[in-house]
Amino acid sequence: MSSKVIKYTTIIGIIIILVAIVFIPKLLQSEKKPNNAKVEQANLRVQIQIVQREIIEDKLVLSGTLSPFEEVEIKPEISGRVTSINFTEGGNTQKGNILVKLNDSDLRAEFLRAKERIKLLESIESRQKQLLDKKGISLEEYEISLNELNMQRATVSYIQAMIDKTEIRAPFSGILGIREISNGAIVSPEKVITTLQVIDRLRLDFTIPQRYATEIKAGQNVQFKVPPSDKVHTAKVYVIEPRIDRSTRTVRLRAEYKNTDRIFPGTYVEVELIKDTKEELFMIPTQALIPDLDSDKVYVYENGEAVIRNVSSGFRNETHVSITNGLQAGDSLITSGIMMLRPGMKVDISNI
Is residue 193 a part of any domain in this protein? Predict the structure, then answer.
């Protein structure tokens, strides 16, 4: 092969390489353009909700506590040694039952001695009265004997009262708690023997803010839940504190609950105070509402497009907001992809 042929072959190869460098990228770009065009033409898929009217309860949720309707710590009034325990822990008792007996042997001995002395003093008083009637003694002498008799009678009454205090009785009917003493123990007035409670009825104590003080009255029912349960219980308000607490600006209320579900006293509850029941226009998810300085806005689906609407909002709760103006029943409210929407954008409805 001659040098001239080699030269021409080299030139032609260089030309082919240059052509390839220039045109192959353009061919590749032209092949990618149709795919990109398809991506750009794909419509945004959104979820919708058909707008409907709803009945809304405007509720105020408050914290409350359930307590026994009656509750007392059983303690002795005097010090003494326990001679008998007449109750069962966790059992029921009736009003007036003797729960614990303290040793009273020394008091009974004093009582008998005091009673015998009364007999002697009554005899002396009787003779003195006869002498007074016959003017055998002065009135002063008779009054001294009478006064001594009355003082002895008072002593007997006092000893009887002390004996009564050795019998620790139930002040009302209820259920007893855990026993804190044993037979033979020496107890004092500071010692708690057990507790006595009425738990078939409970007191529900709660407070409401000052601005709602006029919205609830004695005799009105309130509802409450024991978290995490959703079961609703009903109690009746029977007393309202006739003043507002200066530090918290709240009013204290107390309701009675018939404890049919055997809820433990001391339980924390959530009181639901229904302030008003009214028909709102519409309730929509809060994420569907677009706040704006001039007017709140929402997107609705119309003929395959996202159409923006100016609306007026009202009552709110944790998840929804009421719309008082700007929507109609049956409108298809767009509830997803809100931040990517633009007025008039083509959208498709998602089945999810």
Answer: no
